[in-house]
Amino acid sequence: MTIGYSAFELLEMAQQMERNGCAFYERAVAVTEGEAAATLQTLAEMERAHEETFAAMAAELRGQERPDTALDPNAEAVQYVRAVVGGHVFELRADPAEWLGTRPTLASVLRTAIDLEKETILYYLGVRDVLTGPDRDRMDEIIREEMGHVVLLTRRLPGERGA
Hints:
The chain is mostly helical. It has a single domain (about 5-155), classed as Ferritin, core subunit, four-helix bundle (Ferritin). The protein is built from 6 helices and no strands. The protein has helices spanning about 5-30, 35-60, 70, 75-85, 105-130, 135-155. Helix 1 (about 5-30) runs antiparallel to helix 2 (about 35-60) and helix 4 packs antiparallel against helix 5. The radius of gyration is 16 Å and the shape is elongated.
């Protein structure tokens, strides 16, 4: 018997991912300076806003859950999300400071942030497939913002164009 995640549960996981992202960026600010620190602080604030968006979406879903199969007849999106979460691509209980390592450089902080943003985008693409209507539209907007984070972080990498 397979047990899927409800859209509500997926949104709760997304909230935790955003909290982790916010904590990571706030800790990364402490080991960077100047424009890089300002960029990371802005990203922390954006992650906090995403968490609030997911919380509002989850609140709207509470008590209105439909079976996963109504939104995902072949359960492909749910299977994908289960593989991602079950494969520990996202360690939701991890201390985000651990991702920084013991002696982080600006480049290592930015590369870690880029990797985390990419993994987040992949997760959100899976979640998007089980959402409908305005929730799906909001998820599309958040995915675009997360993609923008990757671009912004890449531009800050030492030696990259725009750094």
